[in-house]
Amino acid sequence: MRSSNPVFSRRGFSRDSGYAGFNTAPQAGYAQGNPYAQNPYAQNPYAQGGVQHGAPPQAPVTTDRMTMDDVVVRSAITLGTVAVGAVLAWALLPVSTTSYGLAVGSAIVAFVLAMIQSFKRTPSPALILGYAAFEGVFLGVISEMYNSRWSGAPFQAVLGTMAVSGATLLVYKAGWIRVTARYARVGIAIAMAFMVVMAVNLLLVAFGVAENGGLRSFGPLGALVGIVAILLGAFFLTLDFKQIEDGIAYGAPRNESWLAAFGLTMTLVWIYVEMLRLVAIFTNND
């Protein structure tokens, strides 16, 4: 199951049957106790020559498989590119109308690059790092803008993002959240509904129907919407973690680790931006 919207598509490793890990089960021993084994003998999308009926999927015989180290390294490179872009934008672009324009332009370019990568069948490091660089410029400008009005807000947002990410990973690894097909479908449906509501709210604000940002105001309602958005970001992180586990278990090609880095980066950017707004709202209420 894979959304056609690249914002909600989790850049799945399975290209043929859809959502890796929700239609298939990467681990042996499917008969009992595996919450993900909806089809216990589903075919491994990376297996060469298919599988025999009654036998669990086998990873391809190759040494060029994705490992957790690959995911960590690619994610560090991608997030590092975002950080470098943000630091340079903060240092070189003073808060002004021009810098706001550059931020919007960078966000549009980053979105276009993300769209292109999301619909490609293979990962492109150039597209992913290009997305990260332009996203970094956007984040640097808006972070400086928030900091100029709410001193220390970016630092608090970074800490908040780290806290949400760490807590989500802990809950996921502890098995308190089981990423099943139903879990993914319900979560993505909620996320798509949320984005539709936010798009309508943006139009209402643009045409003057809703004042002070509407649902995205810097008040209690805006805080509630921000909390929902952060919870959705945590939901996407669980999907990312599951797909990474499945990709490694299935023996996905090493270059697929770029997709993992891409997905994690998009999710963390989402959480950071929402956390930045939330910090500002709570600072306003102090």
Number of β-strand runs: 0
Low-pLDDT parts are 1-8, 14-42, 48-56
- What oligomeric assembly is this protein in? single chain
Roughly how many Å is the radius of gyration? 20 Å
Morphology call: globular
- Coarse structural class: mainly alpha
Helical content band? 55-70%
How do the SSEs run, as a string of H and E? HHHHHHH
Rounded mean pLDDT is 82
How much of the sequence is in beta strands? under 5%
Separation, N- and C-terminal Cα atoms: 44 Å
* Tally of separate helices: 7
Textual characterization of the structure:
This protein is mostly helical and 286 residues long. It has seven helices and no strands. The longest helix is centred in the last third of the chain and has 31 residues, at 220-250. It is globular and about 55 Å long. 39% of the residues are buried.
Question: Secondary-structure map with pairings?
Answer:
Blueprint: H1 68-92, H2 97-119, H3 125-149, H4 153-173, H5 181-206, H6 220-250, H7 257-285
Helix pairs in contact: 1-3, 1-7, 2-3, 3-7, 4-6, 4-7, 5-6, 6-7
Task: Please provide a brief summary of the model.
This protein has seven helices and no strands. The protein has 286 residues and is an all-alpha fold.
Salient structural properties:
63% helix
